[in-house]
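Hypothesis: this fold can be encoded by more than one sequence.
Test: take the structure tokens below, design a sequence, compare later.
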């Protein structure tokens, strides 16, 4: 079930919000601690348009209520006697609640600071309390902190709500239906979020299609640090919906070792992943099988869990990148051409490999001179310092760095004087759709290969590997163009 959390500041606002969200919500939680002034429960709960959870969260549990405890508990008792489907009662107040039918009670524990090591014992204690449902909500300081939360859901024997708060915990909110959670929470599109990391009701319905997620839903996602800029959830979730494939695609903010996250998730979920900055090399340690070309490139952007459980890693960047460039210059054009590749990271490695495969003469440059030198030795390329970019002759200039990516859209990886008529310019950045580099290149009379073409092509290859179906390529491109404006 999908529950919208409401933080109204008046009783009238509470009733208006209930009417507004009821068509899309299975339940609505009304946070009484956000209401100023007298609370008329009889009026609030008079024939509500959808089932209601009443919560009055005290300050000690991350809420706003700082009044007398006896008055707070009395509100919850009265709500349970009226039309509230549930009342949410904190773990340390449960014994004071009194004679309230257990099936109306959600026994809850909140920790806005951390995911405690003894979370399972806290859950077990609440599960044994006799309450109709149990809730644990803890802060995820790292995405690995979501694993014990999902493990609680996967092993629950009583109606359970378990979630990780904060931006690193979003996957627990989206995967709650897969693990048969009693419900998951969404933020009101027109109001403030009630807890950090809540996803809006609109996104829950239209982007992630939460009501379609079930135990058999396959889980994919993009591994990145940071992840907020990525359009991958939009493009892949739209593609799954277009062909009727039972899957969901998540944004996964992974800091540190991406292989550790992939391994930790393996027993729970993870049919496949897209991998982007800065993890395309480090994530290879999680793979059981690496496609030979990807092994030679030394970077992967795609992981696929095979039917036998093994994790296969490959790279769709180089094929998609070459196809995006050849759509502009034609097949065969790259042979013998001088290519200046800016960036020796994951994208740079893939594109440099593709350029050598097409017969181009490659020169590499990177702010990390050692990385450029190492890659050049692997593929037989030349290097130059970044300060020498203006003096480096080339027929095609390629940006494989994140410079110019949202939100730092005023940056360019090269000075404008490098650009001239007849030059071909490729930019891997696709958000924004037209970077500062591409705008300057067009003004200088260059032919350009925008990152959006590369992005859509590599996503199409990923989709077809994961699903075994033809990708709805036009729909995928349409979604990205619309999202980027």
């Amino acid at each position: 079930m999908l529950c919208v959390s409401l933080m109204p500041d008046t009783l009238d606002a509470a009733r208006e919000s209930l009417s507004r969200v009821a068509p899309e919500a299975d339940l609505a939680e009304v946070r009484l601690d956000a209401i100023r002034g007298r609370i008329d429960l009889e009026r609030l709960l008079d024939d509500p348009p959808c089932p209601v959870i009443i919560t009055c969260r005290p300050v000690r549990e991350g809420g706003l209520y700082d009044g007398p405890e006896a008055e707070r508990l009395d509100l919850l008792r009265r709500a349970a006697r009226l039309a509230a489907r549930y009342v949410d009662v904190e773990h340390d107040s449960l014994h004071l609640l009194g004679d309230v039918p257990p099936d109306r009670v959600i026994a809850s524990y909140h920790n806005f600071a951390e995911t405690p090591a003894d979370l399972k014992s806290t859950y077990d204690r609440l599960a044994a309390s006799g309450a109709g449902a149990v809730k644990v909500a803890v802060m995820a300081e790292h995405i690995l902190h979501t694993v014990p939360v999902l493990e609680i859901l996967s092993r629950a024997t009583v109606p359970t709500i378990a979630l990780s708060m904060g931006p690193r915990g979003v996957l627990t909110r989206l995967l709650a239906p897969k693990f048969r959670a009693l419900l998951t929470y969404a933020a009101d599109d027109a109001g403030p979020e009630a807890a950090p990391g809540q996803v809006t009701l609109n996104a829950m319905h239209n982007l992630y299609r939460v009501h379609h997620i079930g135990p058999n839903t396959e889980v994919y996602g993009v591994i990145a640090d940071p992840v907020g800029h990525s359009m991958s959830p939009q493009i892949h979730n739209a593609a799954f919906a277009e062909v009727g494939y039972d899957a969901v695609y998540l944004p996964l903010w992974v800091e540190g070792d991406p292989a550790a996250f992939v391994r930790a998730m393996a027993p729970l979920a993870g049919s496949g992943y897209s991998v982007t900055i800065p993890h395309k090399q480090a994530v290879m340690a999680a793979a059981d099988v690496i496609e030979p070309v990807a092994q030679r490139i030394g970077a992967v952007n795609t992981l696929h869990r095979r039917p036998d459980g093994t994790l296969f890693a490959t790279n769709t960047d180089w094929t998609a990148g070459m196809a995006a460039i050849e759509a502009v210059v034609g097949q065969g054009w790259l042979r013998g051409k001088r290519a200046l590749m800016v960036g020796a990271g994951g994208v740079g490695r893939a594109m440099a490999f593709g350029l050598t495969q097409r017969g181009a003469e490659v020169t590499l440059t990177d702010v990390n001179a050692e990385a450029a030198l190492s890659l050049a030795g692997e593929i037989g390329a030349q290097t130059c310092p970044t300060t020498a970019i203006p003096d480096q002759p080339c027929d095609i200039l390629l940006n494989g760095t994140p410079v110019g990516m949202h939100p730092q859209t005023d940056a360019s990886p090269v000075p404008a004087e490098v650009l001239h008529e007849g030059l071909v310019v490729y930019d891997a950045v696709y958000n924004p759709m037209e970077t500062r580099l591409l705008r300057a290149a067009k003004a200088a009379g260059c032919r350009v290969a925008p990152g959006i073409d590369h992005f859509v092509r590599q996503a199409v290859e990923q989709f077809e590997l994961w699903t075994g179906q033809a990708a709805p390529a036009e729909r995928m491109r349409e979604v990205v163009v619309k999202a980027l404006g």
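The longest strand covers residues 105-111. The domain at 329-449 is CATH 3.40.50.720 (Rossmann fold).
Hypothesis status: open.
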